[in-house]
Specification:
16 helices, Alpha-Beta Plaits, Uridine Diphospho-n-acetylenolpyruvylglucosamine Reductase, domain 3, 7-stranded antiparallel sheet, alpha+beta, binds flavin-adenine dinucleotide
């Protein structure tokens, strides 16, 4: 693995950091260190120090010190990452960015806002709502994830098919480099051709190239109206065909979500989502001005019937749409309560394939799950080809993990052979690292060259992405002797 694991902090370094941010903004308490060793992935490793900086100058001074003393340092937002990107693998310092949470400017006439990285996505949407503006990427974790974390992972969500990912909204960034130097990249203008688009370099960099301390983000007017259609099918293939047929019409809905029968049963059981009991279901949202919404909803309903939907419901009632959306958002937690002794783990959970390959991919995933005796629930943002496959397994069983890992390898081989990517929106971190290298055989070396140029001492979130080597079954958060932290 391309990093050292060990003890990096000494009393002198801890004191120097306390002098920068104040003692009350640092912790070495075992409980805090343990807590900051998690994100929402399967991995865990405690850091040696947690620091809550309040401004760019403090971040710059801490990073400069870490660089001089060769201490690993990891920026953390909401800790909602699903692939271990916010787990401090090497130990060292976790910089909790959530205290840098000011919305600095909202300029609707210029179509941008300026935020600190610790602003939570939903809080920004609440601030933009009175102006009838938003950033419509809408991640499922919006109530907890931060804009800094979203930029660092190129997050998106169910509306990416029409509105894109967060990278499409990044106009400019302020970044603290590994040297401690502060740079401004990008602009406050909607267009810029002024040289390398460096702001894009930091999108998806997962804290390995620099620490984002400010983001200038494009904002866009909210749609006036929306309607939702729930269509049930007796096969997954028909649901997949429905997605492709809608898009090819051409009609670009604001969301097309797909769920298989395992997911439908799980949310109906745990949150009483009230979805029809079927082999597969599509949840389609159309938005725009009222006349367009009405026309698009009619077109979608006609396509669902052409494909042979066994049940269709349509609503523009805000309460009903919120209930369906809540059902969809509850899949991940519901799957964990699906079977006694099983938990839902994020293994192979975020692939994307060309949209027309969805039916083929989903059928192949189910075949693989059967072959290795694991349960796989498949759902996702089918409209943009992004699928989530949560694996249900007994996390204390070495045998389950081994079979799970084999299934993951086969699932990702399928994805790559279909022209897809191992991660559509969650990032690489640890859990996808070996498969990402397989997907990008000619690119990951170049990524390491860029990393070395910007972070020669490898202090920024070391060991992740292209630096990871070997199996993903290490430093697991679960009590499984062979693989645990
Ligand atoms: C229930 C649930 C639903 C989810 N749904 C979605 C979804 O719909 N779409 C989606 O894209 N993701 C989703 N996710 C994954 C996750 O929420 C996103 O990856 C999110 O962008 C992470 O943001 P965060 O603030 O929690 O970042 P963290 O998890 O804290 O960190 C993620 C990465 O960003 C880096 N980072 C954080 N802040 C900074 C900074 N200031 N500077 C540099 N690097 C930084 C970290 O080092 C780490 O590498 C979901 C997660 C959960 C638990």
């Amino acid at each position: 693995m391309g990093f050292d694991v060990g003890q990096f902090m000494d009393a002198d370094t801890i004191q120097a950091i306390k002098d920068i941010v104040g003692e009350e903004n640092c912790s070495t308490k075992v409980a805090d260190l343990y807590t900051y060793g998690f994100d929402a992935s399967i991995h865990h490793r405690s850091p040696e120090l947690v620091v809550q900086p309040r401004n760019t100058e403090q971040v710059s001074r801490i990073v400069r010190l870490a660089n001089e003393r060769l201490v690993p340092i990891l920026a953390r937002g909401g800790g909602t990452g699903l692939c271990g990107s916010a787990v401090p693998l090497a130990g060292g310092i976790v910089l909790d960015m959530t205290r840098m949470n000011r919305i600095k400017e909202i300029r609707v006439e210029d179509l941008y806002c300026v935020v600190e990285p610790g602003v939570v996505y939903d809080r920004l949407m609440e601030a933009l709502a009175p102006f009838k503006f938003s950033i419509p990427t809408a991640p499922g974790s919006g109530e907890a994830c931060t804009l800094g974390g979203m930029v660092a992972t190129n997050a998106s969500g169910m509306r990416a098919i029409k509105y894109g990912a967060i990278r499409d909204y990044v106009l400019g960034l302020e970044v603290v480099l590994a040297s401690g130097d502060v740079i401004k990249v990008g602009t406050r203008t909607l267009k810029n051709s002024s040289g390398y688009q460096l702001e894009r370099l930091f999108v998806g960099s997962e804290g390995t190239l620099g620490i984002i301390t400010e983001a200038t983000l494009r904002i866009t007017p909210k749609a006036k109206k929306a309607a939702m259609i729930i269509a049930a099918f007796d096969t997954l293939e028909k649901a997949g065909k429905c997605v492709s047929r809608i898009i090819a019409r051409p009609l670009i809905p604001s969301a097309i979500e797909l769920m298989d029968s395992t997911c439908i049963k799980a949310v109906n059981k745990t949150v009483k989502a009230g979805f029809p009991d079927a082999e597969a279901l599509c949840m389609i949202e159309v938005d725009g001005d009222p006349a367009t919404v009405e026309e698009d909803a009619k077109t979608v309903l006609a396509i669902c019937s052409e494909i042979g939907a066994i049940g269709v419901e349509c609503s523009s009632d805000l309460e009903q749409m919120a209930k369906w959306t809540y059902g969809r958002k509850s899949i991940m937690s519901s799957l964990s309560r699906y079977g006694e002794g099983f938990v839902s783990v994020s293994l192979a959970d975020d692939m994307a394939v060309p949209i027309s390959k969805i039916p083929e991919a989903v059928v192949a995933f189910h075949r693989t799950a059967e072959k290795y005796g694991v349960i796989v629930g498949t759902y996702g943002h089918a409209g943009d080809g992004n699928l989530h496959t949560k694996m249900l397994l007994d996390p204390t069983s070495e045998d389950y993990w081994r079979r799970g890992e084999k299934a993951v390898g086969e699932i990702f081989d399928t994805v790559i052979s279909l022209g897809g990517t191992v991660t559509g929106e969650h990032g690489v971190g640890i859990s996808k690292a070996p498969y990402f290298k397989k997907e990008r055989p000619t690119a990951w070396g170049t990524m390491n060259v860029i990393k070395k140029a910007l972070d020669p001492n490898n202090i920024l979130n070391p060991g992740k992405m292209a630096q990871w080597e070997g199996s993903i079954l290490r430093m697991l958060r679960y009590p499984c002797d062979k693989y645990s932290d």
